[in-house]
Amino acid sequence: MLNRPSARPAFAPALRRRRSALPRLPPGQPANLRRQEGQAQPRLSLWVTEGQKKADALASAGLCAIALLGVSNWATKFRSKDGKTEWRFIATKKRAINVVFDCDVMMKGKVRIELANLTKFLQNKGATVNAVYLPNDPKRGKVGVDDWLAEGHTLAELENLIDAPRPAPQLPPPITELLDDAPPTISRPLSLISGRAYAAAWPYTQTRIDFDKDRGGNIVKLPEPRFEKERRLIIIRNDGARFGDGMQNSFADLGIDVRLADPPPQKDKLWSTPGIRKYLGGYRPDPADVFRRVVEVLSHFVDFEQSLADQETMSQMIACFILSTWFLDMTNVSGALWMTGEKGSGKSHTMIVVCELGHLGQAIIGASSAASVRDLAAYGALLGLDEAENIADKSKVDPELRDLFLASNRRGVPVSLKEAGPDGKWHNILIDAFGAKVFTAISNPFDTLSSRVIIVPLAKTPDRKKANADPLDHRQWPHDWRTLIDDLWAMAHLSFAGDAEIRSDGQRTHPDHRARPPAVARPSYGGRVARCERRARPVDEERRRRACVQQLPRGSAAESKAINDLRPVEIALRPS
Questions:
Q1: CATH classification of the domain holding 139
Q2: What pLDDT, on the 0 to 100 scale, is given for residue 22?
Q3: Are the C-beta atoms of 291 and 216 separated by less than 8 Å?
Q4: Domains contained in the chain, number
């Protein structure tokens, strides 16, 4: 029972008339537990309830009872793990303790939480704790143990209500079956799986919250709606279906594993929300128009007049390479460009333009960490390496970074690394670094890399407007950069829905042609063709030799390779 010091009863002002005195504790007096003789005898079951009247009813029935002034009054103010001091004088070890609160214990979140906390506290002291749930009578409202006993129920009936500890539920054993092949997985923002195209986006979302839970676990309506803004991953299928949290379909409806934990760091180069809305609204970009705009952007920033061919042809060839980065899932071999020339020839300038137009393009330097670069490569990003002369020297470049650039031109040839797992042990992991690359250097590539790249010689331009233009300032672009990137996403996503066929034009004569990457890509859809092949194929070899005589020795292997690499590879897209 509770220790109630003798004091003059206090009366509530509103209850003075025809009401009995309400016993209250003096201000500042703690509600301590009164130690009784039976509480120290573990052979007797102990009953814990809320309120003096209920404890008196239990004691009158011959039970050993403790009353709490409030469901949380069993603990100290600061929730000491030992509880109140009086618990030290109550035998709890190996003792059966029955907790009986009012019948609405499961309906009030705060009472339910305190019951769980009290149960855990007594179990830690070695007691066997049982919860007693009184029947709920909707007609009478809240019913306490005193009311229940006053109705004529016996102690045997009360003990029958004891909810003894039940064994933890056991899950049925899982059923394991063998799969014929690895399950399909979306691990890149643009994926082609079983003839369907999937594009990943991380748009900003705003969620309106009108209801929440209070500290007691009860659901309450907020005075004012709360808004939460965050970036969420969604998957868009080529038929317009959307998958994700809060979307029309969940990821479970996708039927494909999604392994895209974090958005790429190039957040501005992802498919934007306005672009997604336009695509879902029925907008489809014209591939020929997209190709034309890419060519015009290249011609606006880069001077190719002293390169392998005339300005228009070179812009079309580089534009084809850029488009091929958006169709990476359709190819088994990726391409690479090697921009070479003297200081001030615009190599880095050209690389930045290509990276700004390529799929998740990112220009980096040799001092970048291999861990960050491999995450970019795993998403199929176009990577540009400035000052690539040092890539041949293992002492100047991180060997892991070097392998990521040199071993990423063919699908199915990953980079094997050791990485510490969550368990603290080292595990073998395979990094799929397959993707297109752009290099800049004053010198020509070394022998191993020269067989995998297209050498594009550049020279200083007399056009000061092109030389001083900043491709990172999108206000200087001849076409809106954001719209162009969204159209490239939509075109790649739309074209992925068709069957892709990669074939050579049959005119390569290089003895190692099967190890050579595709030089350029020619996208076609619905009969609308970006016809750069007409200009790229018949380029006069004599003009190319004269244009690059200052960059490459006449008759050298590098010159022959640069000429031969201009042969296009066609990507024919047949829509389903």
A1: 3.40.1360.10
A2: 46
A3: no
A4: 3
CA distance 348 to 350: 5
CA separation (Å) from 196 to 26, 28, 125, 492, 552? 76, 72, 61, 12, 45
Provide CB contacts within 8 A for 455, sequence distance 6+: 338, 340, 444, 445, 552, 558, 561, 562, 565
Residue 410 within a domain: yes
The parent domain of residue 554 ranges over 287-574
For the chain, how big is the Rg over CA atoms in Å? 38
CB 448 within 8 A of CB 388: no
Specify the DSSP element, H or E, that contains 185.
Answer: strand 185-186
3-state secondary structure of 267: helix
* CA atoms of 63 and 53, how far apart (whole Å): 14
Determine whether 188 is exposed, middle or buried from the number of CB atoms within 10 Å of its CB (0-12, 13-18, 19+): buried
Given 3-state DSSP classes, what are the helix, strand and coil percentages for the chain, each rounded to the nearest 5? 30, 20, 50
Is 82 part of a structural domain of the chain?
A: yes
β-bridge mates for residue 217, sequence order:
none
Q: 333 and 197 in one domain?
A: no
Q: Which of 279, 306, 337 is a domain's end point?
A: 279
One domain, residues 365 and 393: yes
> Where would I find the H helices in 334-480?
347-357, 370-378, 399-406, 447-450, 464-468
Dump pLDDT digits (tens) for 311-328.
888 888 899 889 888 888
Residues of the chain with pLDDT under 70: 1-40, 106, 137-140, 163-171, 366-367, 392-394, 407-408, 448, 494-576
In the block, tokens 């690059």 appear at 548
d(CA 331, CA 354): 19
Which of 279, 303, 331 delimits the end of a domain?
Answer: 279
| DSSP-assigned beta bridge partners for residue 429 | 417
Q: Would 150 be classed as within a structural domain?
A: yes
- Structure-token pair, residue 139: 């007609």
Distance, in Å, from the CA atom of 134 to the CA atom of 161, rounded to the nearest integer, reads: 7
Q: What is the dihedral of CA 263, 264, 269, 270, to 10 degrees?
A: -30
Read off the pLDDT of residues 233-280 as tens digits, 9 standing for 90 and up: 899 988 888 898 877 788 888 888 888 878 888 788 899 999 999 998
Q: What is the DSSP letter of 568?
A: -
Number of residues that this document lists for the chain: 576
The CA dihedral of 485, 489, 490, 493, to the nearest 10 degrees, is 170
What is the torsion angle, in degrees rounded to the nearest 10, for the CA atoms of residue 360, residue 365, residue 367 and residue 371?
Answer: 10
- What values do phi and psi take at 169, rounded to 5? -65, 140
**Statement to judge: residues 387 and 407 lie in one domain:** yes
> Shortest CA distance to 487 belongs to which of 233, 286, 296?
286
Record the pTM. Answer: 0.62
